[in-house]
Amino acid sequence: MQATKKLTSLLRHLFALVEEEIARNSGFAVKLDPIMAALPMGPARPTRSPKNPMTAVTDVLAVLQEKDESELGFWARSLDIPTLKAVIRATVGLAKGLQR
Question: In CA terms, which of 3, 50, 81, 87 is 20 to 30 Å from 20?
């Protein structure tokens, strides 16, 4: 079992025990209420990048013409991974089209 699964299982058991104590002890429930109010209600989900980020792909050649190679490297480092992958795919696609 992975470490995250073990932790999840442990936390589920802990919260079940806390729920039992809340049902038995109203004083405990009153003390716990402000603490629980600070927790987010829904599951936290990371935001995902779009699957096909084509915004920077069309401008790669323009950036190369306006900047020298060292500046192009700095520009490329500022891009996120999905955008870089899209740039590479588009560049490889252009190169394959030129070879035919």
Answer: 3
